[in-house]
Amino acid sequence: MKSAIIHFEPVFSRWDQSLFTRKAFKNVKSEINVNDKQILIYNIPVWKEKPSEKMMLRFISYLKKEEIDTILLSDSAEALSISHVLKKHFKIFNGSFVINYKLYDILRKCAEGHSLELSESTLVLLTSQPEKAKEFILKIYKHIKRIKIKTEKPEIFSELSSFFLYEYGLFIEVSKQTEKKESELFIYIDGLLDSANLYLGDAKQTEIIFNGKNLFKEIKKYKKLNQITLEFLIYQFCGKLSHQNIKLFFKTYPVRIIKLIK
User: Fold this and answer.
1) Within 10 Å of residue 86's Cβ, how many Cβ atoms?
2) 180 Cβ contact partners less than 8 Å away, ≥ 6 residues apart
3) What is the mean pLDDT of residues 77-96?
4) Measuring CA to CA, which residue among 161, 183, 156, 184 is closest to residue 172?
5) CA 215 – CA 211 distance, rounded (Å)
6) For 197, which DSSP code?
7) Count of CB atoms situated within 10 Å of the CB of 111
8) Banded pLDDT at 195 (limits 50, 70, 90)
9) What would the 3-class secondary structure string for 100-116 be?
10) Is-above-0.85 flag for pTM?
11) Which ranges constitute the DSSP H helices of the chain?
């Protein structure tokens, strides 16, 4: 798998994307040096005022010839009206590996933002997927005093409740309605449309902003240093997304969470 940053700067004209396409493609590729690692940048060769889908498809073919199959969209590329075409043809970094590894720190930062101690808080998980809830709880139950589940289908969580009660002595309350209390943090895991303190699901996702003093400053021109950017960097520096590589990356580059943006 070969990855790159896909960027957009309004340097191409209407004619570049229609008549002078060969010339345009000569000017789309560049590199940046990030902590002694060369990272490829490809600038989308379309006209900002009216981007051509035909040109975008040609750009996609060009990237595939360059052996790119996974991409990080820069903030400006993400904002481009035609960026959805890229997402249909390439794998996208989504930050899930970083979220899973940093889950405790993320929850602690969330609690801190609501003037709560995480160890004294109650986590209310908004979910309709028992397996996803089980995976989540196994990662954090040692750090949390109480865990509840809010779901439209309480009946499908009976096996999960029994598992944690008999295996860990942990009682998990499951219900449709849960009144929100000051000491509770509502965590959105998937599909339920509800207000939450933290969104970690597929439909919505909280942006987790990191900082590491002068680390990775070159990449900040293209993308904020969030969970998606870090996942891309881990792949670039380590060659594979795995627990061991993520652990090594954060040990080598001690970045910390500075804020959560819903």
Assistant:
1) 20
2) 124, 186
3) 92
4) 161
5) 8
6) S
7) 21
8) confident
9) HHCHHHHHHHHHHHCCC
10) yes
11) 21-25, 53-65, 75-79, 84-89, 96-101, 103-113, 130-140, 158-168, 227-238, 243-252
At 192 the pLDDT is: 63
Structure tokens at 225: 């240093």
> CA-CA distance, 204 to 7, in Å (whole number)?
23
End-to-end CA distance of the chain: 31
Q: Which residue carries 């609501």 as its tokens?
A: 114
The token pair at 2 is 């070969």
Assess whether pLDDT exceeds 70 at residue 116. Answer: yes
Q: Tokens in use for 128?
A: 């309709």
What confidence score (pLDDT) does residue 39 get? Answer: 96
Amino acid at 41: I
Q: What is the C-alpha to C-alpha distance for residues 211 and 168, in angstroms, rounded to an integer? A: 36
